[in-house]
Specification:
By secondary structure, the protein is α/β, with parallel strands linked by helices. The protein is built from 14 helices and 8 strands.
């Protein structure tokens, strides 16, 4: 697909705000503290065991972690997902620090920008993906009745067309988690059981359908890209802002990798604070407030609100 994947180096924060205003609601975002980092899941980044077949280890370890977490979580948490909703349990496991196949995204350009620059010590990256370009083969299997329900949606709801896209996505991911399937592709999905952090961050996940290949391979397949077009964390064609805005009017590209220069970091964080996009707002509770104070370590001081800390 020509111009499916492009890169843009941010010249100013004002240019980024202009770009954000032209992106429809179907775009999702992921910020990463280094421009060089690849798109990989925490499970994919885990040290590999040479004694057993790698893919089998990943599938077995994911199932073992999920079952162990289910059996012990009630001792520590009062509110738990339904037992059959494996996606919700996997999201809860990741929320509390477990490694999973889920890769976090947000529906907010500005939340994505925050995660790109918050802890960055060098140029960072903001990934933007147009969900309209994600192929729906796993979803089509759901619509055609080829997947059995492992969730609270009844077969009658699905057959009568009452199962919307978000319900279908949960159905597909729950079915894949219950099997050793090695399908290829990603499914955009949000759990039914939201925690406060996921809600305020406008979060969702891209769920890779198997373990045999890495996340980027799954993403390329879903976007109609050849894997060789996405090497080393992405080497897309570099475009200027005007070119990208024109491409958006033609409903392309499918993915934009935005390079965020480190010298714009404080400017971006300052403006995001004015929007109330801070660690304190995105991580409700004392931990988030304490994390928000790290901004002061950069020598940041407010001049418009004397005495304020964030």
């Amino acid at each position: 697909m020509d111009d499916a994947y492009v890169e843009w180096k941010m010249k100013s924060w004002e240019d980024a705000v202009r770009l954000a205003s032209q992106l429809p609601e179907n775009w999702i975002f992921r910020g990463q503290s280094s421009h060089d980092w690849r798109l990989t899941t925490s499970l994919e980044r885990c040290p590999k065991t040479p004694l057993l077949h790698e893919n089998m280890v990943k599938w077995q370890s994911e199932r073992a972690m999920l079952e162990a977490f289910k059996s012990h979580a009630h001792l520590l948490l009062d509110r738990l997902p339904p037992s059959m909703e494996d996606l919700d349990w996997l999201a809860l496991l990741q929320h509390h620090g477990g490694v999973t196949r889920l890769l976090d995204f947000t529906r907010s350009f500005y939340v994505g920008a925050f995660f790109a620059v918050e802890g960055a010590g060098r140029d960072s990256a903001l990934w933007a993906i147009d969900q309209r370009h994600i192929r729906r083969s796993p979803m089509e299997r759901c619509e055609e009745g080829h997947l059995e329900s492992q969730s609270e949606e009844s077969p009658e709801e699905i057959s009568e067309g009452k199962c919307d896209r978000s319900m279908q996505a949960r159905l597909v991911t729950n079915q894949l988690l219950a099997s050793d399937s090695e399908s290829i592709g990603v499914v955009p999905v949000a759990p039914r059981f939201h925690n406060e952090r996921l809600a305020v961050q406008q979060g969702l996940f891209l769920f890779p359908c198997g373990h045999a290949v890495g996340f980027e391979h799954h993403l390329c397949d879903s976007l109609g890209l050849e894997v060789h077009e996405f090497p080393d964390g992405g080497k897309g064609v570099s475009r200027n802002l005007g070119e990208i805005l024109e491409m958006l009017r033609q409903k392309k590209p499918a993915i934009i990798k935005i390079r965020v220069p480190s010298d714009l970091r404080l400017k971006i964080l300052h403006d995001l604070r004015r929007m109330n996009v801070t660690a304190a707002s995105l991580f409700p509770g004392l931990d988030g407030y304490a994390r928000s104070l790290n901004f002061l370590a950069s020598g940041y001081r407010l001049i418009d609100q004397p005495g304020a800390l964030i």
